[in-house]
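Weekly puzzle thread! Below is a chain. First person to post its structure in C-alpha coordinate form gets bragging rights.
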Amino acid sequence: MDSNRKVALFEKGLEQGAAITVPGPDGEHRATFTLEQFLAWAEDETGYWTREYGCTREQLADWYERGGGGGGKGPGPRCIATTRQRRRCKKTIEGHSECRSFAEFVQLDNIGGYCIVHEGHVLLKPLSGRR
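Winning reply:
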Protein backbone atom coordinates (compact mmCIF):
# COMPACT_ATOMS: atom_id res chain seq x y z
CA MET A 1 0.00 0.00 0.00
CA ASP A 2 1.51 3.37 -0.96
CA SER A 3 2.09 6.13 1.59
CA ASN A 4 -0.62 8.45 0.18
CA ARG A 5 -3.22 5.71 0.69
CA LYS A 6 -1.95 5.15 4.24
CA VAL A 7 -2.25 8.85 5.09
CA ALA A 8 -5.77 8.94 3.61
CA LEU A 9 -6.68 5.86 5.65
CA PHE A 10 -5.51 7.48 8.87
CA GLU A 11 -7.30 10.77 8.14
CA LYS A 12 -10.50 8.86 7.42
CA GLY A 13 -10.05 6.98 10.71
CA LEU A 14 -9.68 10.22 12.64
CA GLU A 15 -12.99 11.42 11.21
CA GLN A 16 -14.63 8.20 12.42
CA GLY A 17 -13.30 8.29 15.99
CA ALA A 18 -9.79 6.98 15.21
CA ALA A 19 -10.95 3.44 14.37
CA ILE A 20 -9.11 2.42 11.21
CA THR A 21 -9.38 -0.67 9.04
CA VAL A 22 -6.04 -1.81 7.64
CA PRO A 23 -5.00 -4.97 5.80
CA GLY A 24 -3.55 -7.60 8.14
CA PRO A 25 -2.65 -11.30 8.23
CA ASP A 26 -6.27 -12.34 8.85
CA GLY A 27 -7.78 -9.99 6.26
CA GLU A 28 -9.15 -6.60 7.23
CA HIS A 29 -8.06 -5.54 10.72
CA ARG A 30 -10.17 -2.87 12.43
CA ALA A 31 -8.57 -1.22 15.43
CA THR A 32 -8.17 2.06 17.22
CA PHE A 33 -4.59 3.06 16.56
CA THR A 34 -2.69 5.72 18.42
CA LEU A 35 -0.77 8.03 16.11
CA GLU A 36 2.44 6.23 17.19
CA GLN A 37 0.99 2.79 16.36
CA PHE A 38 -0.31 3.98 13.03
CA LEU A 39 3.05 5.49 12.06
CA ALA A 40 4.80 2.23 13.03
CA TRP A 41 2.37 0.29 10.83
CA ALA A 42 2.68 2.80 7.95
CA GLU A 43 6.49 2.75 8.07
CA ASP A 44 6.87 -1.05 8.15
CA GLU A 45 3.70 -3.13 7.84
CA THR A 46 5.56 -6.44 8.06
CA GLY A 47 7.52 -5.33 11.13
CA TYR A 48 4.34 -4.11 12.81
CA TRP A 49 2.56 -7.46 12.33
CA THR A 50 5.59 -9.48 13.44
CA ARG A 51 5.62 -7.53 16.72
CA GLU A 52 1.83 -7.84 17.15
CA TYR A 53 1.81 -11.61 16.60
CA GLY A 54 5.26 -12.47 18.00
CA CYS A 55 6.27 -14.13 14.75
CA THR A 56 9.13 -13.94 12.27
CA ARG A 57 9.10 -12.22 8.90
CA GLU A 58 9.54 -15.68 7.34
CA GLN A 59 6.36 -16.95 9.03
CA LEU A 60 4.41 -13.96 7.78
CA ALA A 61 5.78 -14.36 4.24
CA ASP A 62 4.99 -18.11 4.30
CA TRP A 63 1.41 -17.37 5.44
CA TYR A 64 0.82 -14.94 2.55
CA GLU A 65 2.65 -17.02 -0.08
CA ARG A 66 0.51 -20.06 0.71
CA GLY A 67 -2.83 -18.24 0.54
CA GLY A 68 -3.41 -16.82 4.02
CA GLY A 69 -4.55 -13.28 4.63
CA GLY A 70 -7.92 -13.21 2.97
CA GLY A 71 -9.96 -13.71 6.10
CA GLY A 72 -11.42 -17.07 7.00
CA LYS A 73 -9.19 -20.13 7.11
CA GLY A 74 -5.57 -20.15 6.01
CA PRO A 75 -2.85 -22.71 5.34
CA GLY A 76 -1.44 -25.04 7.96
CA PRO A 77 2.19 -24.75 9.06
CA ARG A 78 4.84 -26.54 7.04
CA CYS A 79 6.76 -29.64 8.07
CA ILE A 80 10.04 -28.76 9.80
CA ALA A 81 12.06 -31.45 7.98
CA THR A 82 14.92 -30.44 5.73
CA THR A 83 14.91 -32.12 2.32
CA ARG A 84 17.96 -33.61 0.60
CA GLN A 85 18.27 -30.31 -1.27
CA ARG A 86 18.66 -28.56 2.15
CA ARG A 87 15.29 -26.81 1.82
CA ARG A 88 12.37 -26.89 4.19
CA CYS A 89 9.74 -29.48 3.26
CA LYS A 90 6.70 -27.92 1.56
CA LYS A 91 4.09 -30.29 3.01
CA THR A 92 1.90 -29.29 5.96
CA ILE A 93 2.19 -30.76 9.43
CA GLU A 94 0.20 -33.98 9.77
CA GLY A 95 -3.31 -33.21 11.07
CA HIS A 96 -3.05 -29.43 10.52
CA SER A 97 -3.84 -28.80 6.86
CA GLU A 98 -5.44 -25.43 7.63
CA CYS A 99 -5.57 -22.88 10.44
CA ARG A 100 -8.46 -20.74 11.64
CA SER A 101 -6.24 -17.67 12.05
CA PHE A 102 -2.71 -16.37 11.66
CA ALA A 103 -2.26 -16.56 15.45
CA GLU A 104 -3.04 -20.31 15.34
CA PHE A 105 -0.63 -20.72 12.39
CA VAL A 106 2.19 -19.02 14.34
CA GLN A 107 1.51 -21.09 17.47
CA LEU A 108 1.59 -24.40 15.56
CA ASP A 109 4.58 -23.35 13.45
CA ASN A 110 6.54 -22.48 16.62
CA ILE A 111 5.74 -25.88 18.13
CA GLY A 112 6.81 -27.59 14.90
CA GLY A 113 5.96 -31.00 13.56
CA TYR A 114 6.36 -33.31 10.60
CA CYS A 115 4.27 -34.20 7.58
CA ILE A 116 3.10 -37.75 6.92
CA VAL A 117 6.21 -38.42 4.78
CA HIS A 118 8.78 -37.28 7.36
CA GLU A 119 6.95 -38.31 10.53
CA GLY A 120 9.11 -40.72 12.51
CA HIS A 121 12.36 -39.96 10.67
CA VAL A 122 14.52 -39.00 13.64
CA LEU A 123 17.62 -38.24 11.55
CA LEU A 124 15.99 -35.23 9.94
CA LYS A 125 16.86 -31.89 11.54
CA PRO A 126 14.72 -28.74 11.53
CA LEU A 127 16.04 -25.69 9.72
CA SER A 128 18.38 -23.59 11.85
CA GLY A 129 16.74 -20.71 13.69
CA ARG A 130 13.48 -22.58 14.29
CA ARG A 131 12.02 -22.29 17.78
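Puzzle host: Confirmed. Bonus trivia for everyone else. The first strand starts at residue 19 and ends at 24.
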